[in-house]
């Protein structure tokens, strides 16, 4: 689990590599976190007061707004 506090907007320049078999939960308290989706499904934005739980087969590109406050929880799928 990680607590994230970002003063400025952040974006990955490229899709992070590596295969994963994880379940991730993104909980956004302030700001927004946009996560790249699987091919053909588009990006998903998690805004303040929302959360997203999803299976990660591969890590995806992401972007955050300035002044983001969020929690990121990763669990093995089993």
- What coarse outline follows from CA principal-axis ratios? globular
* Rg, nearest Å: 12 Å
Q: How do the strands of the widest beta sheet line up side by side?
A: 1-8-3-6
Helix content: under 10%
Distance between the termini: 17 Å
What does this protein look like?
The chain has strands spanning 2-6, 10-11, 19-30, 32-35, 44-47, 51-58, 62-64, 68-75. It has 78 residues and is mainly beta. The protein has a four-stranded antiparallel beta sheet, with no helix packed on it. Strands 2-7-4-5 form a four-stranded antiparallel beta sheet, with no helix packed on it. β4 and β5 (44-47) form a beta hairpin.
Q: Gist?
A:
The chain has 78 residues and is an all-beta fold. The protein has no helices and eight strands.
């Amino acid at each position: 689990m990680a607590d994230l506090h970002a003063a400025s907007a952040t974006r990955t320049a490229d899709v992070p590599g590596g295969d994963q078999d994880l379940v991730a939960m993104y909980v956004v308290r302030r700001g927004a976190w946009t996560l790249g989706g699987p091919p053909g499904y588009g990006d998903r934005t998690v805004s303040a007061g929302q959360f997203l739980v999803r299976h990660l087969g591969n890590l995806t590109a992401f972007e955050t707004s300035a002044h983001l406050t969020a929690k990121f929880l990763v669990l093995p799928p089993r």
